[in-house]
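Reminder to self: tokens first, then the designed residues, so the page reads top to bottom the way the pipeline ran.
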């Protein structure tokens, strides 16, 4: 696992130990109680408490959802990022509360999530609540909120970045195994299992860690409004508990989660949807936009269109009614168009076959050709017949005499 981590080391050791003893299961085998912690299809949605959107950041953080999240705990930065964006865009949400209980995780995904939380401050009030653990990458994200609140026993900090590379070369050599790395590039293949890590390779890994750590410190400085030297003094990898973290300005308040004023705020007033309800194509476009603003939307498209439609319909019932009416009208118009096209095609085929069966000089042949030409131009059969009768009365009379004679009728 040669990732660059921003994670509290004891939690990292515990995770690796638990992963080492846990077989990889099928995704479908996740227990129901674990699936319930996640949204449909693995997407994390926020939950409403009063007018606040509460978003959980719990367990080790990875960029994308991992198979072991539902067994050992964990969260995906991309899913939390989507939930923050949805909450920031929701007019019914007055504040965003990140409920954090995490030792941190991979650097991958953390910077983007931190930027998303910081941008959300321009649209909503953002509060980070640390429940027992807010370390490393989790603190990087928490620092982007307007304010950080923690419970009295919360462990906070662990600001720093690291990568662990095991050198198994001596063990491989003892076992009679020699690993050959075929590479292009001086530093390519550094840290391959069974190869020694050279001093130059170690220094290069240190360069990478230092560059990423600089981004971490800059993010904390931006979010907390601290100077570079102040953050550097705190970035020694240590953790601090509750009141001491408050004295160091790592957090802003020690309190219980239930005491957050954002959770007690009255629900935001919902604009009446009765005004300017669109119709027709505008209603379809407006409701589809409402679906994209639900918690079931993620970058790349709707994650679950059915759930998105249900949520949007619940929020905007009158717009949904207009959308249903417009869709019904559109489907009826499409059906009518399809019926007309099918009838015209049938008429064309029927008249072409009829014309081919008649002598080329007969009145019936010329009559069918004349009508087929009108049908091919877009007229229905009845319209074509009326047009030919009006334009060529002599042909019509000749056709009737020929038709009656063929039927054995006497023609006067």
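Designed residues (412 positions):
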């Amino acid at each position: 696992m040669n990732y660059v981590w921003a994670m509290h080391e004891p939690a990292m050791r515990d995770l690796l130990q638990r992963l080492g003893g846990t077989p990889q299961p099928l995704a479908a085998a996740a227990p129901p109680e674990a699936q319930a912690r996640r949204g449909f299809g693995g997407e994390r949605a926020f939950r409403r408490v009063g007018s606040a959107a509460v978003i959980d950041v719990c367990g080790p953080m990875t960029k994308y959802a991992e198979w072991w999240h539902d067994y050992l705990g964990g969260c995906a930065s991309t899913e939390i990022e989507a939930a923050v964006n949805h909450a920031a865009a929701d007019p019914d949400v007055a504040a965003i509360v990140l409920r954090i209980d995490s030792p941190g995780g991979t650097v991958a995904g953390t910077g983007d999530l931190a930027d998303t939380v910081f941008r959300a401050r321009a649209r909503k009030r953002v509060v980070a609540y640390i429940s027992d653990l807010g370390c490393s990458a989790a603190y990087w994200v928490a620092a982007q909120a307007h304010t950080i609140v923690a419970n009295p026993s919360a462990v906070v900090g662990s600001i720093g970045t690291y990568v662990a590379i095991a050198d198994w070369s001596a063990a491989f050599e003892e076992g009679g195994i020699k690993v050959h790395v075929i590479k292009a590039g001086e530093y390519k293949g550094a840290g391959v299992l069974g190869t020694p890590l050279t001093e130059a390779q170690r220094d290069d890994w240190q360069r990478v860690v230092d560059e990423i750590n600089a981004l971490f410190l800059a993010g904390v400085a931006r979010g907390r409004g601290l100077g570079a030297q102040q953050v550097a003094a705190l970035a020694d990898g240590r953790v601090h508990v509750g009141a001491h973290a408050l004295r160091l300005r790592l957090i802003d308040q020690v309190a219980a989660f239930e005491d957050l004023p954002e959770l007690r705020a009255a629900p935001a007033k919902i604009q009446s949807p009765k005004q300017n309800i669109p119709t027709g194509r505008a209603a379809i476009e407006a409701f589809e936009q409402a679906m994209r603003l639900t918690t079931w939307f993620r970058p790349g498209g709707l994650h679950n269109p059915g759930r998105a439609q249900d949520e949007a319909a619940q929020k905007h019932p009158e717009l949904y009614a207009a959308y249903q009416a417009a869709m019904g009208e559109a489907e009826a118009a499409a059906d009518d168009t399809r019926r007309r096209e099918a009838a015209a095609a049938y008429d064309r085929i029927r008249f072409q076959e009829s014309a081919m069966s008649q002598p080329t000089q007969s009145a019936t042949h010329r009559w069918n050709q004349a009508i087929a030409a009108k049908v091919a131009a877009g007229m229905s059969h009845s319209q074509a017949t009326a047009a030919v009768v009006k334009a060529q009365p002599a042909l019509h009379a000749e056709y009737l005499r020929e038709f009656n004679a063929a039927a054995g009728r006497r023609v006067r």
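The two ends are 101 Å apart (CA to CA).
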